[in-house]
Request: fold
Amino acid sequence: MSQTKLPAIAQGTKRRSRIRRLGLRDLPLDAVDLAKYLIGKTLVHDLPKVRLSGRIVETEAYLEGDAAAHSFRGMTPRNRSLFLERGHAYVYFCYGAHYMLNVAAGAAGIGTGVLIRAVEPIEGIEQMKRWRHTDRLLDLARGPGRVAAAFKIGKPLDGENLCGDGNLWLGSAAKPAGPIGESVRIGITKDAHRVLRFYERENPFVSGPKRLNA
DNA sequence: AGTGCGATTGACT
DNA sequence: GTCAATCGCACTA
Reply:
């Protein structure tokens, strides 16, 4: 009796169970804690024919009373998803060309969140290459606009609950996160001195200038 | 109704 | 390294 030949479906089940969906209770309440917590966790987008997934390797926190946060001047039609309970997606369109994915933080009514700035691709790499119009693995999801493009994230996913049973979700870490680095946030002009950017050190999929990634 | 600008990217000197 | 593209939205009037 051979044990080596498992049915394909059983192998698939076993492989998939390495990553479990994160629930609301898994997410720290505080935006800074959440930004650090998400490093190393998995971002998954299940499309009809393919699963896109990757390790989150760079994040930024946006807080209450933070002039750089979109919520600074209160709720508007654009930023309302940022005020949802933690774990919801806030997808924002910027520079006339790029979408960016945030994970809302805090309780409902609090406009804080975490920007996903870079992801190390794991599954669906061929599709990501096609959509991103590049074969360079390192460039697929290095930068917030690229993350959204590689993972096919656009306005329709704004407000999605990433801790529910939807197609876009957060998963546990496939591999534990390495040492976490900190720096100021990239590309902002207000409250620019605050150290609210977090990344996995020595990971080549992290964006940003070298001086910030020491 | 008009204006300014942004949590960026890709192309180019 | 520099720089233009591009457009939805918030703000002013």
Remarks:
- Residues 73, 76-78, 93-97 of chain A lie near DNA strand C (CB under 10 Å from a C1').
- Confidence is low (pLDDT under 50) at residues 1-13 of chain A.
- The domain at 8-212 of chain A is CATH 3.10.300.10 (3-methyladenine DNA Glycosylase; Chain A).
